[in-house]
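User: Please predict the structure of the protein below. I'd like the answer in structure-token form so I can feed it into my own downstream comparison script.

Assistant: Understood. Taking the following sequence of 455 residues as input:
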Amino acid sequence: MKKRGSSKELEMINRGDDVSYVMACVANADCCSVVGISNIGKSTLLRSLPVVYKEHLGSAADNYTFVYIDFNLTSQMTEQGFYEVILRNLLEVLETKQADAELQAAIRQAYQTVIAPSSLFLVPLAFEDSLAALQDQRSGLLVLLFDEFDEVLAALDPRVFVRLRAMKDRHWSRLCYVTATGHRLSEIRREREVGEFCELFAVHTRYLLPLSRVDAHALVQRCAAQSNAELTENDVDFVLDCADGHPALLQATCRALGKAKEEASWRSGAVNSERVRDHVADDANVRLECAKLWNDLSRPEQETLIHLLSGRDVTFELDTLIEKGIVRASAAGRQVFGDLFAGFVRRQQLVRRRRPQGVRVDVEAGDVWVDGELVPVLTELEYKLLLLLYGSLDKICDKYKIVESVWGESYIDEVDDARIEKLVSRLRQKLEPEPEEPKYLITIRGRGYKLVSPD
């Protein structure tokens, strides 16, 4: 579970300009959309706002109520689940602020109606009534901070967003939404009803870019201090060249470098810089961050990066990649940010050039491809199962062998068929283009499972 902004976390964000931009929007009751690539710091930024807003709003700060909502904590991706998580966090904020008891009671009653309605028709009405009660009994501006909003916008009934737009129109100067997403709201969903909600953010969309060299340098030094790693200035420059200004990649690289230097110190002789570089590039957390960035790009964006690193002329999607901070434009030309991610992209180019069919596992790197496409990251159990099946390609693995290899021999009597089937099903969802009609991970009824080569 994500925690509200701690002092350590806030110290790490280095996002003063971005916070000031959002606060300027809030001060004018303008809705604001924060957009950025994977793990660039969107959630950290939104979690910081209820902590730092007084520094930006001054004497007017008491007139603002910030409510942070992490939609990863939604119990169900439905209209009812949407309103429930908002009201739950609103109640928590009001209790912390020791708001009027009558107001808290009204919001709590609305919350009970949302979670246990006598009719689903009452769910949106209860939510609207709760905001009306808040506006009637408490002066000032309510700021709803919608974090991890991508799936919400993509999945919920359009009427939810029609209501959100209507509530903003009704309480214009007293209600404000701030969203954090990986893509522009208008790119996530395009229906007319949802489009009217997205219009609220069209003028105020803020892309979070990689950190500046100065801020990235400070982040690396703090990360090194927290992990008790001794980094020289040359080491810090190495980390910055590897990860550029991507916060999560910087921290993963810093930790990987610390481990590499520690291991090198056990051996006699000078530190081999090439070996250290390879160690960092092969680190599981570094690869994971690169894979997240890559998988979050559209196919045209991926192709543009491959063409750019191949020295070919590109125009399609280039502006979008610059806007996202994936490509940096300077007097020296256009280049992909960070040596590590650029190297990851080059590997994808080689994979696509070979266009291997079927399932392929790069055991050393921990990467998995299906028909030349990188698959979503596997859990530890999923990866163990895949390695077993991959090592016995076209051969049946019975359930005894699966339990022994995945869970361990001591679990033979504890893991039942249903648990194995669920694990196979989860792996199939990530490997198969059509999981309901698998062509690679096959069930052999009564005998076990096998991973088959392509025809």
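That's the full token string. The CA atoms of residues 256 and 305 lie 26 Å apart.
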